[in-house]
């Protein structure tokens, strides 16, 4: 999966995957009898065409070979998505990993599945965007639907709006996409406002919470709990797919949010709780953005996998010495000492009341006013 490498200097550095796998191994997250590994495969063209256009898949293939040609009309060969040899196969393997996750959930209806190398949520049906070539989360959703699943909830927790996944299912009433993100007024891709609520065939198929730059854990978690659980319960999904990009961390240089590892771990716990309550554990979790590859990404996605396995890693757990030694030798920097940031995670529940002077509360209320009535919910009290 580390073959998904645009260049030596591109922000989407696949070392973040290797470091995550190393930390998972050092903490023996999978050795506790609570999980198993399945090998990803390279998705074939028919599988890719479940969510992507045939001409687009052909363009990615053309841009991946020895006679590669950029295709700017398809978003290939841009600054964000430069072409590289083997791009099709590398991208299709990430896609195949999420198909494996979907199959695992379909086979064993109470077992979550995690593909932390996935979460390529900016790729739309016919265009690459934002470091994303093929949209693996959308592919997993399509596989679930093709198998007879009637309602899939997609929750996107990346700092950036999940625009590609939203666009692919814009007119599909079987899929509800919810995205919490930094407002498009200050961050790529410039979309994801509360008024974006779905197409004519699915007029309330999209829910967007656009939070102000500088939002911290307390505001982020307040927004999550004020919007996601009540909407999820009203939608009553059969399977949940979530995207856990960790680029909202305060150390990440590509966004303006100020979240902690502790807060992002809490989001994983929240999603696990929702999956247990609403889908009997049928939950697929993917990775996504995250560009602080040493301090943030390995810890957040190790927590995600541990939570999904039913054995959360305590925040006070020391980062294993062998991992820290490897990071120092390989990157010349000190790795964190603990699995958490010692953050204060208290947040005001929505029941405490709405503060019109708080920009986070205004963002929450804009979303609730836009979509809650359509789900039979009161934007002020539910």
Automatic annotation (TrEMBL):
Record-annotated Histone deacetylase domain positions: 10-306
An example Gene Ontology biological process: epigenetic regulation of gene expression
Keywords: Acetoin catabolism
InterPro entries recorded: AcuC (IPR003085), HDACs (IPR000286), His_deacetylse_dom (IPR023801), His_deacetylse_dom_sf (IPR037138), Ureohydrolase_dom_sf (IPR023696)
Gene3D superfamilies: Histone deacetylase domain (3.40.800.20)
CDD domains: HDAC_AcuC_like
GO MF term (any one): histone deacetylase activity
Top-level taxon of the source organism: Bacteria
Alphabetized SUPFAM superfamilies for the sequence: Arginase/deacetylase
Biological pathway: Ketone degradation; acetoin degradation
Family under the similarity heading: Belongs to the histone deacetylase family.
Name of the protein described by the UniProt record: Acetoin utilization protein AcuC
């Amino acid at each position: 999966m580390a073959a998904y490498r645009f260049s030596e200097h591109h922000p989407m550095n696949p070392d973040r995957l290797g470091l995550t796998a190393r930390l998972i191994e050092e903490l023996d997250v999978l050795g506790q009898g609570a999980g198993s590994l399945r090998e990803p495969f390279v998705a074939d063209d028919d599988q890719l065409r479940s969510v992507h256009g045939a001409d687009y898949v052909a363009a990615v293939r053309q841009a991946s070979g020895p006679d590669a040609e950029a295709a700017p009309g398809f978003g290939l060969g841009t600054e964000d998505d430069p072409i590289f040899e083997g791009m099709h196969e590398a991208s299709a393997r990430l896609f195949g990993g999420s198909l494996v996750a979907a199959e695992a959930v379909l086979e064993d209806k109470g077992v979550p599945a995690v593909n932390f190398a996935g979460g390529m949520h900016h790729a739309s049906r016919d265009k690459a965007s934002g470091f994303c070539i093929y949209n693996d989360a959308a592919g997993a959703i399509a596989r679930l639907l093709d198998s007879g699943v009637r309602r899939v909830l997609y929750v996107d927790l990346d700092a950036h709006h999940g625009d590609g996944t939203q666009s692919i299912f814009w007119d599909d009433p079987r899929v509800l996409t919810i995205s919490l993100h930094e407002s498009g007024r200050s961050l790529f891709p410039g979309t994801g406002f509360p008024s974006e609520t779905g197409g004519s065939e699915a007029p309330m198929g999209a829910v967007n919470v656009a939070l102000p730059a500088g939002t911290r854990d307390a505001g982020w978690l307040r927004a999550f709990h004020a919007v996601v659980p009540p909407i999820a319960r009203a939608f009553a999904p059969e399977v949940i797919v979530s995207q856990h990009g960790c680029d909202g961390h305060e150390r990440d240089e590509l966004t303006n949010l100020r979240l902690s590892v502790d807060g992002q771990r809490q989001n994983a716990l929240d999603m696990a709780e929702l999956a247990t309550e609403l889908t009997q554990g049928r939950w697929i979790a993917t990775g996504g953005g995250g560009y602080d590859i040493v301090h943030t990404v390995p810890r957040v996605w190790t927590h995600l996998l541990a939570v999904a396995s039913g054995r959360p890693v305590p925040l006070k757990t020391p980062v294993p010495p062998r991992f820290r030694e490897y990071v120092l030798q390989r990157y010349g920097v000190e790795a964190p000492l603990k699995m958490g940031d010692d953050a204060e995670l208290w947040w005001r529940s929505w029941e405490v009341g709405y503060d019109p002077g708080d920009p986070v509360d205004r963002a929450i209320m804009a979303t609730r006013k836009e979509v809650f009535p359509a789900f039979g919910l009161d934007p002020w009290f539910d």
